[in-house]
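The instructor's notes for this session suggest beginning with a concrete chain rather than abstract definitions. Hand out the sequence below and ask the class to guess, before any prediction is shown, which regions might be ordered.
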Amino acid sequence: MSSTFRAVHQVARPDGAPGAEHFAVVEHPLPAVEPGTALAENIYLSVDPYMRELMDEEWPLHEPLGYGRAIGRIVRSEDPDLQVGDLVEHGGGWSTHALIQHGYGRVIRPAAGVATATYLSVLGATGLTAYVGVREILRVQAGEAVYISAAAGAVGGVAGQIAKLTGAAHVVGSAGSAAKVRHVVERLGFDAAFDYHDGPVAELLAKAAPNGVHAVLEGVGGDHLEAAIGSTREFGRIAWVGSISQYNHPDRPPAAPRNLYAVSDRSIHLRGYQVRHFMHLRQEAQIWLTPHLQAGRIVADEQIVDGFENVVEAFLGVMRGDNTGKMLVRVGEE
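After discussion, reveal the predicted structure:
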């Protein structure tokens, strides 16, 4: 094994959309494995929209990034809970290797017929986010109509499939291109979808769901949130999980929904949430999701890019909306 590892550093704070110039790949000596730690050689790295927010202040400059979900294999260990050869999910960031502190790595033993990468998508935080939104917060019921924004994205695609399995009668999604609209309907099983570039989102949603919707999973913000409020029926529910439309310009967010009073007038339950507050449901979600994956009732919609040198570009692609499903980077052999 090499005595060095490579890590992505952030070298500048972006003002607006991030670019390759905000990052650098730096080689470091492998860290010493002290008692209570283990060294993982990474196999898959996750790149996600929320990481744009980390770039503003949470990721350090000129040192390995402090956070990012990954799966690796333990190659050295002084931790009694992690054995050499174990597959481990951890949050060690964009690097070829990661030193895992005691209690910060979760051993993965893939279920029959389930790929390792899926533990960063449907069976990872992505799937948990969708599961919590649809089953815990929205509590979608049989026969209901549901709207999912960013339906071709990592969370939205899983959420729509969960809604259908829960018994939703009409699941509508919005996406960013005609190809993504076809993908959402033909591969993921949504009943209808529209390209939000084709007109005002509120009008497009009203056409796709003329009788309104009972439940919404919304992750875009701006005009998408306004459209969701406009189409939500009396006593409906909206789970608001993100606002990717403003991640590049947090100091210049889109205007608040002009129809916000409808939340009060129609007794709509509008609730924001973040998956970090629901990690106690991770095992429950995996138990529910795994048999659906094994039976093919849920598609693990993943886009996997090869090569550590492509981590930054994969992330920039997510921010441009180039991806369909969960974007992952394969940096090592299983």
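Then share the key points. The two ends are 15 Å apart (CA to CA). The chain has two domains: 4-118+301-330, 125-276.
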